[in-house]
Structure formats: C-alpha cells, structure tokens
C-alpha cells in the first residue's frame, strides 16, 4: 500500500522532483508549489501570481536549495529555504511550458512548450541561446542526456521523437512513432486499438546517456539507443491498456518505471535487452521483425502484459501496481536510504510506494 503525503495541496498535483538531500517539490494546478521533507512533512509553499498551473519542478543538483519551476509561460528560480519570493524569473516561452530539463553542467536549461518550441536558456548570461522549433504540435517532454551537456531528446503530440545537438538548430534525427508502426497496423488488431494514435507524452534518458525511453498514447513503451548522430529502436512493447503518461529510468540502472492513464504503475528491467543488443548488433534487424510479428499475433493481453515473444521468452513487468488513478508524474528517488516510487495523480496528495526488492 502507498503512504499518502497530505496537507500540502488542494488541487491535482502535476509534477514532482527530489533534491539530492531528500527534499521533494510538487507543483499543482492553480499555481501552487509545495516542498516536503523526506518523511512527507510539508515544509513550505508558495502560490504564483496569475494562478497558472505549475507544470514542472526541478532541483539544482549542485545547489540543492535552488529550485526551478515552470508556471504558464514563466520559469521561476526559487530558494527552498524562503519560498515567498523568487530569486529570478524568465519569460522566454510564448506558450505554456510543459517540461524543464537542466543539463549536467547546469549552464543550460531547456523548456518545452505548447507551441512545439524548446527554448534553451543560457544560465550564465540569462539569455536564450537556442530556439529549437521542429515539433508541429505540443512538445510534451524534453530531457538532456547525461554525460552529454550539448545533447537532448524531445517528444510531442505530433507523434515525433527527436535527437538534438545544440551546435545545430535542427534535429540530428527524427522518427514518427505512428509511421514506424505501419507494419504492425497491417496485421489484425484487437477492437479499438487503432483509436489511440501514438501521441508521445514522456521521455527519459538512462544514466549512461545512450539509452532512452518514450511513452505514448497507444499504450506502448519504446526504448531507443543513440548511435552516433541517429537513434535505433531497441524495443517496443505494450506497457499499458491506455496511454503511457510517464516513463522514468531509475538512477544508474536500466530499470524503467512507467505510469499510465489506466491507473497502473509498472517497473520493467530492460537491461538484458539493451546489453544483449550491444553484444550482437548484427542480429538487430532480424530481432526487431521477430518481435513485431510476435506482438501482433499475440493481440493485447492487458492482464499478462505480454509484449511479444522472442528467443528468450516474454517481456513482463518486474512489478505491477494498481494505483487506481491516472498518473500525472512518476519519480524514483531514495528516501532515508531506500528506493521509493513517488506518484502524482488527479488527487491532491503524493503517493509513496517503497521499492524494497530493488
């Protein structure tokens, strides 16, 4: 059962982040932001003028008292010890921001918005250094790659996933998730499956910097590998009965958390797939086709969550939690030395699930 952190918000929580010192920040509808202690005690709160939804919160890894928050078209920089006023604020996006990402050297902050644009803010001179405009619909998620401070991935409701290098204004690589599924679509489908286009909601990059995941409205979880200036899809499996709203790699691992509109939270171990493909790249194409064919014959088995059969068997979740509410945000973080899953949903409380087995 989840432990519920209550007493902080009165509206649905949209985003979460944790500092390296154990503090947790949550942003909610209506402009409310909360900071919690690791035992779930509310430590402080603020309400942004204009009451725009707080859509993304982000602690500075090097300075854990600094917190970035996006609300409406604005990014505010706060000191968690005194939340009443902001240290700084930036208005560089033209439409509502959906996601923030800070690069490893912390000199660049990316903000993805409803226009499809990603603004890259140079934190040293406090100016926009790049404006990345290639998504033709809402850019829902953006993530800098660990160990590569000039490189990031993004996804959007245009069903596109992109790889960027900030030395160029255009993406190095683009894939359209819907077009990539054409060979699956030609096979018999379970009823209603075609009704969910592959709108991309969330990206997460593993700590190695080369493997990333994308969750989409078609219920599929896709794993990509960056190879030079392009990406290859390593794996694609049906993770949820409804849209996958959140994907999140646990730190220093290939354990992937996914959350869906079906109210489920899953933990997947993709390490064997990722490491096996590293050793035998020549078999990659053959394996991909085998997997797709198996998946379409299988249909959608939402109970067993069978993703497709290959030589080694089935892709099954290591953990499946019936959370019961649509997942708005997922976070894997250590609290008092133990790994936990923090969940934001349509309620006004944070749910905490211990991950004792991992």
TrEMBL record:
<dbReference type="InterPro" id="IPR019775">
    <property type="entry name" value="WD40_repeat_CS"/>
</dbReference>
<keyword id="KW-0853">WD repeat</keyword>
<dbReference type="Pfam" id="PF00400">
    <property type="entry name" value="WD40"/>
</dbReference>
<dbReference type="InterPro" id="IPR036322">
    <property type="entry name" value="WD40_repeat_dom_sf"/>
</dbReference>
<feature type="domain" description="Anaphase-promoting complex subunit 4-like WD40">
    <location>
        <begin position="93"/>
        <end position="139"/>
    </location>
</feature>
<feature type="repeat" description="WD">
    <location>
        <begin position="237"/>
        <end position="278"/>
    </location>
</feature>
<dbReference type="InterPro" id="IPR001680">
    <property type="entry name" value="WD40_rpt"/>
</dbReference>
<dbReference type="InterPro" id="IPR015943">
    <property type="entry name" value="WD40/YVTN_repeat-like_dom_sf"/>
</dbReference>
<dbReference type="Pfam" id="PF12894">
    <property type="entry name" value="ANAPC4_WD40"/>
</dbReference>
<dbReference type="InterPro" id="IPR024977">
    <property type="entry name" value="Apc4-like_WD40_dom"/>
</dbReference>
<feature type="repeat" description="WD">
    <location>
        <begin position="132"/>
        <end position="174"/>
    </location>
</feature>
<protein>
    <submittedName>
        <fullName>WDR53 protein</fullName>
    </submittedName>
</protein>
<keyword id="KW-0677">Repeat</keyword>
<dbReference type="InterPro" id="IPR042453">
    <property type="entry name" value="WDR53"/>
</dbReference>
């Amino acid at each position: 059962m989840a432990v519920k952190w209550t007493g902080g918000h009165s509206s649905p929580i949209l985003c979460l982040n944790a500092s390296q010192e154990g503090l947790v920040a949550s942003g909610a509808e209506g402009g409310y932001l909360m900071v919690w202690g690791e035992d779930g005690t509310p430590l402080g709160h603020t309400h942004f003028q204009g009451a725009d939804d707080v859509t993304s919160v982000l602690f500075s890894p090097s300075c854990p008292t600094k917190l970035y928050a996006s609300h409406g078209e604005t990014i505010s920089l706060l000191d968690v010890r005194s939340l009443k006023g902001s240290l700084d604020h930036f208005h560089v996006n033209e439409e509502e921001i959906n996601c923030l990402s800070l690069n490893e050297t912390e000199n660049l902050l990316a903000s993805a918005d409803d226009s499809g644009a990603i603004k890259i803010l140079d934190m040293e001179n406090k100016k926009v250094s790049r404006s990345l405009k290639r998504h033709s619909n809402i850019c829902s998620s953006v993530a800098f790659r660990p160990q590569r401070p000039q490189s990031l991935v993004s996804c959007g409701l245009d069903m596109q996933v992109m790889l960027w290098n900030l030395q160029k204004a255009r993406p190095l690589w683009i894939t359209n998730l819907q077009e990539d599924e054409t060979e699956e679509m030609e096979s018999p489908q379970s009823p209603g499956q075609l009704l969910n286009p592959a709108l991309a909601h969330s990206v997460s990059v593993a700590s190695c910097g080369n493997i990333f995941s994308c969750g989409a409205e078609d219920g599929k979880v896709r794993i990509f590998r960056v190879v030079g200036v392009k990406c290859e899809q390593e794996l694609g499996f049906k993770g949820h009965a409804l849209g996958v709203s959140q994907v999140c790699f646990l730190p220093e691992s290939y354990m992937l958390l996914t959350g869906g509109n079906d109210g489920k939270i899953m933990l997947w171990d993709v390490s064997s797939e990722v490491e096996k493909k590293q050793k035998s790249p020549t078999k990659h194409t053959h394996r991909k086709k085998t997997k797709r064919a198996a998946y379409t014959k299988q249909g959608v088995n939402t109970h067993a969550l069978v993703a497709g059969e290959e030589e080694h068997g089935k892709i099954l979740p290591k953990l499946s939690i019936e959370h019961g509410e649509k997942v708005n945000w997922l976070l894997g973080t250590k609290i008092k030395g133990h790994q936990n899953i923090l969940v934001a949903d349509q309620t006004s409380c944070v749910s905490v699930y211990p991950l004792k087995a991992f």
